[in-house]
Amino acid sequence: MTVDYLRFFPRWAREAEAPEAVSEWWHWRGMQVHLERVSDPAAPVKLVVLHGAGGYGRMLLPYTRLMGPVEVVAPDLPGYGHTRCEGRPVEYATWVDLAAELIDRERRRDGRPLLVLGASLGGMLAYSAVARAGADALAVTCLLDVRRAEVRAAAARYGVLGRVAGPVMNALRAADDLRVPVRWLARMSAMSNQAELNAAVARDRLGGGGRVSLRFLRTYLTSAPEVEPEAFTACPVLMVHPAADRWTPAGLSLPFFERIKADKRLVMLEGCGHMPVEEPGLSQFARALRELAGR
């Protein structure tokens, strides 16, 4: 059963006009990658949306309504949504490869400016993919550099697990193929500041109610960004960080963001949790995205 995440958004977002999304399949490295596409040939810009842990393409489509006319491509990254991986455990590097190739593929389809939006874990994913493939602009809700112990501690359900996860997971490589519930490892209870929305995410078999391989967890917690922030010059960067994020507070992302060399802008979303659906922050999110697209 598909979860209707749009119902958790304010009325103005629910009533915004938006073309229907259609499913596409992309055969990539032996996988069948599921894409949600909102086609609008007249739209002046194209948007690639990248989810994080517990998410998938359709879950984030409500945010694309914030931008006005835009063509959208939102993949289900391997391990989530409808993407079929033939039972193979996936590494975090596979996500970066897929995202970068998808961005390059969409840039080649037409000459429209391309924006990339990364949410949660998808923020650093989008950063690395854009550093490799290029884009006209990058927007993220956070930038989590898991090389820092405090970031790993916040990302994991149990702080101690996050701090020691790298060495422990490397010692347990033999268990890489084991798939465990996402909620065992990530703080689904802090996905948003609304208990009903958190419960919906935790029940959703395509996202937070699914399973993730220990190989993905291990390779994510031991990953590094594509380039250091001082070397990032691919495009302007907008960070729209939820101001009331109980999972990954802004203080975890700001040290990395402040080091980015490219033009950058920070907008704090007032009253918003990790998955921003509250006002006035959501309206601030909408204005910031529209201004970025307008540039």
Automatic annotation (TrEMBL):
It comes from Nonomuraea antimicrobica. InterPro entries: AB_hydrolase_1 (IPR000073), AB_hydrolase_fold (IPR029058). The keyword Hydrolase applies. Coiled coil: none annotated. The keyword Chaperone does not apply. GO terms for molecular function: hydrolase activity. Keywords: Hydrolase. The lineage of its organism: Bacteria, Bacillati, Actinomycetota, Actinomycetes, Streptosporangiales. It comes from the Bacteria. This is Alpha/beta hydrolase. Residues 47-280 form the AB hydrolase-1 domain.
